[in-house]
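Key result, reporting period 2: structure in, sequence out.
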């Protein structure tokens, strides 16, 4: 998933995604210049936030 996909999933802005990624919270990997996240990893992360 791209940054835009991750932001759209919980209905958050792109800035929220970048802030949480920089704080080492969101499960992103850098692939070249892009950030990518597996849907299953995002689901696990969101489940832990409740």
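The corresponding designed sequence is given below.
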């Amino acid at each position: 998933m791209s940054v835009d996909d991750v932001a759209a999933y919980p209905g958050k802005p792109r800035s929220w995604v970048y802030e949480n990624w920089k704080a080492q919270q969101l499960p992103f990997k850098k692939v070249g210049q892009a950030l990518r996240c597996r849907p299953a990893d995002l689901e696990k992360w969101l489940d832990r936030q409740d």
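The chain has a mean pLDDT of 87. The first helix runs from residue 3 to 8. This case is discussed further under Risks and Mitigation.
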